[in-house]
Each structure stands twice: as C-alpha cells, then as structure tokens.
Write a structure and sequence with these properties.
- The structure holds two protein chains of two kinds.
- Helices cover 42% and strands 2% of the residues of chain A.
- Chain A is mostly helical.
- Chain A has a two-stranded antiparallel ribbon with strand order 1-2.
- The termini of chain A are far apart.
- By secondary structure, chain B is α+β, with helices and mostly antiparallel strands.
- Chain B folds into three domains: 180 residues, ATPase, nucleotide binding domain (Nucleotidyltransferase, domain 5), CATH 3.30.420.40; 83 residues, Nucleotidyltransferase, domain 5 (2-Layer Sandwich); 99 residues, Actin, Chain A, domain 4 (Alpha-Beta Complex), CATH 3.90.640.10.
- In chain B, the strands form five sheets. A six-stranded mixed β-sheet of chain B has the order 3-2-1-9-10-20, sandwiched between helices. In chain B, strands 11, 12, 13, 14, 18 and 19 form a six-stranded mixed β-sheet that branches.
- In chain B, helix 3 packs across helix 4.
- The two termini of chain B are 41 Å apart.
- The chains are: A mainly alpha, B alpha+beta.
- Chains A and B meet through helix 2, helix 4, helix 5, helix 6 and helix 7 of A and strand 4, strand 5, strand 6, helix 1 and helix 2 of B.
- The structure holds zinc ion (2 copies).
Amino acid sequence: MPPTVEVLPKSTTISGANWTYTTLPPAHAVSGGLPASTGGRGARNRHSNFENTAARQRQINSRISDLEKDNYRETHIPLPKKENNRGRISRYEILSSTLYRALNVRRILLSQKTFVNHLADEEALHPTAVRARRSSSAEPGAEGDMEFEKAEINECAIDDEESSGPPLGYARAVSRPSRRPSRTFCEICGYWGNYRCGKCGARYCGLECSGVHQETRCQRMYG
Amino acid sequence: MPPPTTLVVDNGSYTIKAGFGSSSPSYDDVYLIPNCIARTRDRRSLVGTQLETARDFGGMAFRRPVEKGYLVNWEAEKEIWDRAFLETDSPVHADPHETRFVLTEAPNAPLSLQNNCDQMVFEEYEFAEYYRCVAPSVIPWAPTLFPPAPHPAEAALVVDTGFSHTHIYPTLFGQPWNLGVRRIDIGGKFLTNYLKELVSMRTWNMMEEPYLISQVKEAVCFVSTDFSADLEKCKRLRTVDNPLVRDYVLPDYNTYKAGFVRPHGKRGDDEQVMVLANERFTVPELLFNPADVGVKQAGVAECVIQSLEMVPERYRPLLLANIVLTGGNAAIPGFQERFEKELRPMAPVEATVRAMVPEDPVKYTWLGAAHMANDESFIKKRTVTRKEYMEHGLVWAQKTMAGEDVRGGGETIKESSLEKERRENRSHKKRRVGE
Ligand SMILES: [Zn+2]
Ligand SMILES: [Zn+2]
C-alpha cells in the first residue's frame, strides 16, 4: 500500500481491522456469564436450587437484554449536520424549517421516549388487558387468562360472520412459554451441556471443556 | 379523484421497502433503504442509503428509529424519510401533496405511536391521502403462493419473521383474526447478537462488529432439520473432515476486500479466518426454540398452534394449508423444511400442512401492499384524505383506517371484493382448502 498523504496520530485505530483474539470476552464482563439453563418449566422441577434463584434469573434477563441491543456500547448517534452549500433551497429544507412545524410535530420530533415508555403509557390507559397477560408470562404455570380467552373465542365461533374483535394489544399478544423440556448447552463448545460448574453454575459438556472453563471463565459467583 | 401517485412503504426496522404503486406491481419496483443512521469509526454519520457508500464497516454503530419493531424515534426517522421521499435524487421521492401514502406498521402498536405516526404523515409531510395498515394484513393481496387460490386469498396464516420480532398472523377472508395474533420476541437482530456473542467467546472478539457479524450470519447460517444429529456431527471441534464446518475469511478494511465464506481448510498467510461449526445452526435455532437462551416463549411452529387455538376449529385446516412464511429470516436455508417438519406432528392428523416462502420474502409484504392499493373498493374505504383529517381529526381518521364505517351513508361505497367473497362464503362455510 502506498503511504497515506497525511499520517494522523490515530491512523492505526481508524484503518484496518482491530480484532483481537479473546480469552475472556467482554460479553462475560458485562452480562456475568452465560445462563446454563433456560429455567423453563421442565428445568424447574429437576434443579430446584440454583436454576430458580433470583440471581440466576437476573443473569438470564441481563443476557436477553444484551441480545436485543443495537450497539454493544450505549452510544448517542447525532443527526448529521445540514449541508448549506447547495446553492438552492430545496423543498426538503423548507419542510425542515422549524417555522413551519405545527405544535404536534415539534412535540413528536423532540420526544426522547423509548418503546418501554410508550408501553407504560399504554398500560396506564388499559391496565386490565395488560395485567391479564403479564400474570401469565411472569408465572409460566398460570393458565388463568388462557381459559378466559378460550371463553372469548367460543363466543366468536357462534357468530363467525364477525371478525374476532379489535387487536389484542402488545402485552396480550406475546407467545406463551414453550411446553417442551428445556435444553442446556456447553458454554465453551456449544455441545449439550450435561454438567454444571459447582462454583458458578455454568454448563459444560465434559472434562475438556470443564478444564477450559475453570481456567479462563469461571465466575465463581456462588463459590 | 385519487392522487396521481401512490407511494407504498413497508417501514421495517432494518430496511424500508419503498416503491410506487402501479397496475402490475413487481419486486423490481421496490427500493431497499437501510432504516438507520450509521456512525463510522471516524465519526461520520450516514443516513439511510448513504450506508452503501461506506467502505469501512469496522466498529460501525447504528441508530434505528424503529425500536422493537415499532416506529419510536421520529427525530431519526424524519432524517431518513426526508432523504428518501423528498430529496429529488432519490428514486422514490414524491410530492406529498400529489401522493397517496400507504404505510405498514407491526401488529399491536401502542396507540401513542400510532398517533405520532398519523400526525407526522398529515401535519409534517402533508400527504394528500394516507392508509396505515398492519404489515402482515396485506399478505392476502400478494400474488398467491398456492395457485389456483382466489385473489385476495380467503385464508392465509402469515408467519412474519423480521429484524425485531416474529408474528403469527391468521387472516380469514382478508380480515385479521386478531385473537390469534401472536408475537415471539426473536428476530434477525437477536440472532446476529447471539452469533456475535458466541464467536466472541470462542474465537474472535466481534462485540463491536454488528455489521460484519450480520454478513457472516447471512453467509453461513442455516436452520437444521435435524438439530441433535447436526450437533452430534460437530461434537469434535472443527475437524477438517466435518462437512458442516466453514471458514469465513474476514474482510480487510485496509484494502477494502469483502469477507467471504469457503469450506474449511488451509488459510493464506495474510488472511484472518473465522471458523464456524455448530454456530451455523444453533443461532437460527432460536427461532424454533427461544428457550435455548432463556426466552420464555414458544418457537415459531409451536406458536402457530397457540395461535390456532384461538381460531374457530372449522377454519384451522384452511389456515394450516395456507401458511405464508415471510420476512428476512424466512430466507434462511432450511427454515421452511424445519417449520413444516415441526408443525406436522402438532397439527390434526387429517389436516394438510403446507407452508411456502415467496421468491423474495423481504419484499413480499411490499408487494402485497401494492396489490392491496389496487383494490379500489377496499382502499377507498380505508384511506383518509388530508382534508378529512383536518376536518374530522385524528380519532376519526384512525377509525376509518381500521375499517369502521364512520363516513356513514354519506358516501356510497361499493362492496369490496373481499366482503363479497365473505358474503358468498357464508352458505358453504365448511369448505376447505381448494383441491
Ligand atoms: Zn464443550
Ligand atoms: Zn464455573
């Protein structure tokens, strides 16, 4: 490669892949280890102690929320600055002008509410609908509102010329838990995780992966 | 007189699918616009299609206006929409005053977000006419995957699996069966992040490389049709004679060489290679077993059964035989086979289980919406003009778009083709899938 015209002090971090081989990945540092099991209904009965602890559930929830992120680190990405060198006023710029904006539009554009905030608003407006579904997702065994919905559907079935009513809303439309037994995987290699670390609860498949785990990963949460 | 142009926009959380309506809509009419503002590691912000001009995707971060599948941040979305729909050099720019705007959203959007959207469309963009519809609800109008089924389809069970989430969405005679609509909180982003986590733990630290990992995912991942057997094959780590193992040669952003996949083997001196084995199928597996990472929800096939439990029994066979698998994840190799394989034993023995993936599952919803826009009698009832919005307000507009007859007898509107179909079907309800 020819030398670049201007060598910036930080050029090495700007260009070129800066990946590193990892032994302890940042994922661990942040989320505190992989869940060893799903904590589903099947697992509940088999492992009564560790899998059901609140700490374990926090571990799982924190990992799930990591997996829903757009970026690994929280970053604010600002809008690009408007270019003013076009030499003409486009319709786009006219529409962008705040002078022309109605009050509603300004409020919407300035809103920093997240999806969770909007959901909370919805919950405040329609508390019963939300609570019905909540109770079942928090407690996988509860089928109370299932029955309620079954009754609802039979009513619909009588008069199927009608539609099945208005949309259920976000909270009630969520899938119920799976009925299948939960599965566990080796944290090191991804094979079935039939063994569990006595110190931190992590799963592994056998002697070899256990060794790797003890040497490099073990969090010793409960040690 | 309807406005001269119709702009159809399927506003996904990963990409906006946008194009103009015509008498014969096709996939070629659709433009894909990344629905994000990306920031490069030298701190430049790229809006929408500008992302395509980037040559260095390393360390790129993303801001997405659509959060969890719902349009939340209008500050960012406006920036993207302005460039896509108002700038004259965009292939889908339009004069809103002369345009009918057909927009999709995910099912069960919070009302406050629906309000924001409608106000932005009418008060900021000032589109002449507008119809906001639920994305999978337009599938009955899309070209049928089950010929010679009637058009619009009398039954379609839509499985829409996108970037943010997956929906099971039964439709009967063109209407959604709302009681049966179900959501699974697993989508393409979740899969990418899971793959990122796995490779970062096992080989390369890729935590800050979502773009690259998404490329890797598209290049190597598949849905296993026999998960246990494939996992067994990969038990011994990355052996050369394991046909499931792949090498992904990482891109070199110095020379701007793209990454690519090849069978596992020797690596060149100047190459950085990511070896992938069971990650290839344990990642998309989450669509079928969310519990594998602790998400307390059913997989996509099991959730179809949960959905059908809420549909009158006599319609279930019809829906089981007309399943449309759409959205980006439906394109993952093996998805359709696995889906049918899992669903078959859960369905009634006498029922036909038939699921199809359209030729382009990413653009298929757009295509459905464009065809729906041609169903004049239907669209006339649902669209709201800006004048009506100004006159009757937001609630009235939303009732109209939801199909309530708030216009009353003031206008005589012809019975839509679907309504006619429903009416005609009343006499022979028990009819099953067209033989
Ligand atoms: Zn192992
Ligand atoms: Zn341990």
